[in-house]
Amino acid sequence: MSDRPLRRPPAEVRFLGSFPGALPASRLPEIAFVGRSNVGKSSAINRLLGRKAAARVSATPGRTQAVNLFDLDGRLLFADLPGYGYAKVSATQRDAWKHMIGRYLDGRDTLRLVVALVDCRHPAQPSDLALLASLQAHARPALVVATKVDKLTRNERAKQLPSLTAGLSTLLVPFSAETGEGVDAVWDAIEGAIR
Ligand code: GTP
Ligand code: MG
Question: Ligand 1 center to residue 185 CA distance, Å?
Fold first, then answer.
């Protein structure tokens, strides 16, 4: 890969499309964003891209049903994956999601880092633990990001973040799409992953 540092945010973001099935072949390194519905994947992407609405932020959870791909300065791709764990989806849809993510993790050779987002306000969820286990099983590097930290008071934060860290048995980056906290840390991890 190139030694040139990435532009933060990128100068040019190109939406490549929304892919419910097979993804277009690509040679660029790819960063995927995964997490439960409504956790803030699209908002995190927009914040990292320094754009208001590159990725669609949903008022109703479970909106992003396909993989949305973004090209950043022709240097790397961001993949906004459909959310999982939304209570109202059927078992069939849940199976379809598992199948989709399994195929993606298996088959996407250019995937360099999975940014796994968890909601900082909730304890470790079984679906999050299952995702982290699946990333390990597929030997995919992951960065765990705790979203919406702007919603915690200082006291809540002092309790919640360590307990979530313990519950997930992993380090996590506190993040807020609202305040921009954690943006540099996530970019640093991305930069490290594509080097
Ligand atoms: P799906 O695509 O449906 O799976 O959702 P998503 O994970 O992409 O979440 P999205 O970015 O659409 O955000 C869901 C809701 O959470 C929206 O109302 C956002 O405005 C809100 N939200 C996301 N990130 C943050 C954050 O860091 N702080 C606050 N306060 N709200 C956030
Ligand atoms: Mg989304």
Answer: 19
The string of DSSP letters for 20-50 reads: SSPPPP--S-EEEEEEBTTSSHHHHHHHHHT
Residue indicated by tokens 């669609």: 56
- Assess whether the C-beta atom of 165 lies below 6 angstroms from ligand 1: no
Q: Is the overall model pTM greater than 0.85, yes or no?
A: yes
Closest residue to atom 23 of ligand 1, CA basis:
40
- Ligand 2 centre to CA of 67 (Å) is 10
Domains and CATH numbers, the chain: 13-194 (3.40.50.300)
Q: Determine the Cα–Cα distance for residues 127 and 86; give it in Å rounded to an integer.
A: 10
Instruction: Decide whether any atom of ligand 1 lies within 6 Å of the 37 Cβ.
Output: yes
Residue type, 112: R
Q: Tokens at residue 148, please?
A: 């919406």
For the stretch 118-175, pLDDT in tens is: 999 999 999 999 999 999 999 999 999 999 999 999 999 999 999 999 999 999 999 9
56: pLDDT strictly greater than 80? no
What is the predicted pLDDT for the residue at 20? 84
For residue 84, list its beta bridge partners: 36
